[in-house]
Amino acid sequence: MDHRQRLHFVLALEPVDEAVRTARDTVRAALEGWDREDVDGDLELIASELVTNAIRHANSVRLVVYLPDEKTAMVEVWDDNPQGPTAPVPDLHAEGGRGLMLVGALSCSWGWRATADGKVTWARTEAP
Question: How far is CA 124 from CA 27, 38, 76, 117, in A?
Fold first, then answer.
């Protein structure tokens, strides 16, 4: 069963900095609408990190949020760049470069897969 057969929300985003806040707001609103808590805001932060990567490296970005079951929430970011995300060696003095480390720390699992038009990067969280 794919996300179109579950509760889901899809939003096309412009590849601009404002898309990051829009992604967080969208995730929050979708979860609230489905009466699902994101107690610590983990899924919001994950979405913002994945969207940040996409807007830096792609021309088209789509956010998908869905609930596979009663405990799990998923966020996917689809973009037109076929290259998979890579975690750089962290530079403790750099302002950025830790997004994928955060995604890995806050999610139960995450990854990416190629699509006909680019790739989708996804992350899964579970309620306690």
Answer: 13, 12, 9, 22
